[in-house]
Specification:
By secondary structure, this protein is α+β, with helices and mostly antiparallel strands. It is built from two helices and five strands.
Length: about 90
């Protein structure tokens, strides 16, 4: 949610990637949760959800520029709001 840096005003443009498919945001972003429609996705508990980055097959991508555009802001605002509660993975 927005406490971790996901912009609170991402609805209705916001989306994530689950099993190589885009899933649209459902409703408002809360402090510690975001909800997405996985109705048409073959998803199970513990499947990876990509909030920022590329799908496993590298065909889909969500960039910081995309998130900034959905929120009518600049990419630096998105990056500087990412909480230290989130794990960083260097590749």
């Amino acid at each position: 949610g927005y406490a971790d840096g996901y912009p609170w005003n991402s609805f209705p443009e916001g989306k994530v990637i689950v099993n190589n498919q885009f899933c649209k945001l459902i409703g408002r972003v809360t402090m510690d949760q975001i909800l997405f429609d996985i109705t048409d996705v073959d998803a199970e508990v513990n499947d990876e959800v990509v909030v920022l980055g590329s799908s496993a097959d590298k065909k889909l991508n969500i960039s910081v520029f995309d998130i900034a555009e959905w929120n009518k802001t600049i990419e630096w605002e998105i990056l500087t709001n990412i909480s230290n509660r989130l794990e960083r993975v260097e590749v």
